[in-house]
Write a structure and sequence with these properties.
The chain has 122 residues and is mainly beta. Helix content is 0%, strand content 62%. It contains no helices and 11 strands. The protein has strands at 3-7, 11-13, 18-25, 28-39, 45-50, 56-58, 66-71, 76-81, 90-102, 105-112, 116-121. Strands 2, 4, 5, 6, 9, 10 and 11 form a 7-stranded mixed sheet that branches. A 4-stranded antiparallel sheet has the order 1-3-8-7, with no helix packed on it. Strand 5 and strand 6 form a beta hairpin. The protein is elongated.
């Protein structure tokens, strides 16, 4: 059974830093695109993406403050966040396109974690 489990969310003061982690477990053959999303209370926002080759993209509001990275061997995704602002407060979700092993077959599916809460106080 494939699972994505986020960790690292916390309450932090404005200007502080946090590092989010996402661990992928289960019968995976490969990991393609990975991403962090957040839900600040309303609409879901795409925060950052990273390709299998390591090319990263960010939403404008987090550029130069957040860094997305991955460790394919360890099946991990990270989000390093600096200079946090109250408007970064949200539940952060890990998302990944995974090639899942099923017997002698493999199929690609998109998976979500259950989220980790980040709260930034002013």
């Amino acid at each position: 059974q494939v699972q994505l489990v986020e960790s690292g969310g916390d309450l932090v003061r404005a200007g502080g830093s946090l590092r989010l982690s996402c661990k992928i477990t289960g019968p995976i053959r490969s990991i393609d695109r990975m991403a962090w999303y957040r839900v600040p209370g309303g609409q879901r926002e795409l925060v950052a993406t990273i390709t299998s080759g390591g090319v990263a993209n960010y939403r404008d509001s987090v550029k130069d403050r957040f860094t997305i990275s991955r460790d394919n061997a360890e099946k991990m995704l990270y989000l390093q966040m600096h200079s946090l602002k109250p408007e970064d407060t949200a539940v952060y979700y890990c998302n990944a396109d995974l090639e899942v092993l099923s017997g002698i077959f493999a199929y690609t599916e998109n998976f979500w974690g259950k989220g980790t809460q980040v709260t930034v106080s002013s």
